[in-house]
Amino acid sequence: MKYKILLIIFIAQYLFFPLNTFAQISENKITSISFENNALTINTLGKITYTESRLKDPDRLVLDILNCSLESESLQRDFRSPLDENVSVAEIAKGHVRILFFGRASINRKSFLSNNDRTLVTKIARIDAEPDKSDENNQQTSLERELPGKLKDILIEHKSDESEIQITTSKSTKFNTYFLKNPDRYAIDLLNVSPPEKPLPQFSSTPLISGLRVGRAANGVDATRVVIDLSKPDLECNVSSTLIGNKIKIKVKAKKQKEGSAKSSNIKVVIDPGHGGYDTGAQYGGFDEKDITLSISMKLKKELESRGVKVFITREEDSFLSLAERVDITNSVKPHVFVSVHANAMKSTRTIRGVETYYWTKGSQKLAYYIHKSILNDINIPDHFIRRAQFFVIKHTSVPAVLCELAFLSNHDDRKLLTSSAMQENYAKAVTDGILKFLDIDTRPIEIKKPVPEKEAPKKKEDKKSKV
Ligand SMILES: [Zn+2]
User: Fold this and answer.
1) Is the pLDDT of residue 104 over 80?
2) Mean pLDDT, to the nearest integer, of 106-127?
């Protein structure tokens, strides 16, 4: 009997918490993919780590399989089921396989991991709603909703030291952006938008933009990709969209060279706001982790800049960025410090609170210590300890790197800290103080009362989606 219960708990753990935060980072491989009887079956050599996102309008399911590649290129392909479900499999970045399910609105999609974590099955089924006639109506409305938008126009303008690209689509459009290196270019994926029917008029280059291309997104997503070739390094691109959402503007200009204090002006810091885009992070009390991490990160950027530090940020808007992209940005900037900003969450209990600071490499331990201590000094929050864990972004960055879980979004009191603008400022100041203390360029001492206990991270069951 006892054995049975233990077995059930063991299985339940894998059913409900398939994302083992501390899973091995070593590369996994997909060896076969099949689609039969309305189920997609993926087999891998090692344990599967994946995140799942559901997107609306049209309904889609995105499975991101991390630290995993396709064994052969022939596995990169599309499927279509009798239920009109489309499945597209693509390795969108090195070690990042994305499976996209899309089709009718009335489809239920559910994923299961096998007991050994090496087979992932996604079953699709029709949601059998009402009898025939209303079903027909449903189909019609869902078809209407799924009609893709069209790319209508792209305008380019150059004024003094800034180039602006304006993309017009036939309807409100969601998008993802990517800054790509070697050579520098900026890509924007217009989701559920089809390319223009006629080729766009010949485009003339500006002092900052040397080329512009339009095509299908390469990563299997139902999107049109616009790629802007930048004519020189150290340019920044800021994207914004109109309220109605059918015009997207991208401003290209030279990166600001901030005048800084003599001591810290050579210091570079990369801030990484956790999650973004369809990856919301933890969700509690009507708040998305991705918004909190961005808001605090922007305040942290401002604070560091006011102290003369040159700051790079992995995302400045609500866009999806893979973990590999975050690492690539950091390793190309080669900053003195990397800080990934997150909010913690615990599914099983809402009472846990506190600040946790993670590091992995030896050279990052001191950085974790100073930031953690500084937060505890400035903010009235329990100590949830400094911990070691192999989160992707702190394992693969080649500089002192920490991941800060500033507080628990799942706890009522901690959530107040995370969402209050004044407290966000305090976090920004505290993290800045910690960084500067680590770099030993701040004259203001931070008080260190007692050594911070250090613990190996326990195997936690809560869901920390895209950190590994
Ligand atoms: Zn997070």
Assistant:
1) no
2) 81
Around ion ligand 1, residues with a beta carbon closer than 5 Å are 274, 281, 342
What count of other Cβ atoms lies within 10 Å of the Cβ of residue 115?
10
Band of the pLDDT at 455, cuts 50, 70, 90?
low
Say how many Å lie between the CA of residue 102 and the centre of ligand 1.
26
Distance 65 CA to ligand 1 centre (A): 17
Highest-confidence segment of 56-70, 107-121, 166-180, 285-299: 285-299
CB contact at 8 A, 46 and 24 = yes
Residue 170 in tokens? 């036939």
Residue 136 to residue 147: CA distance in whole angstroms: 17
Distances (CA, A) of 386 to 47, 51, 231, 307, 368: 27, 26, 44, 26, 7
Question: Which of 221, 34, 60, 41 is CA-nearest to residue 123?
Answer: 41
Q: Phi, psi (5° rounding) for residue 377?
A: -70, -40
The CA 187 to ligand 1 mean position distance, Å, reads 25
Residue 311 to residue 332: CA distance in whole angstroms: 14
Distance CA 159, CA 213 (A): 21
Q: Which domains does the chain have, with CATH numbers?
A: 19-126 (2.60.40.3500), 149-254 (2.60.40.3500), 268-467 (3.40.630.40)
Say how far residue 169 (Cα) sits from the centre of its chain: 25
- State residue 460's pLDDT score: 47
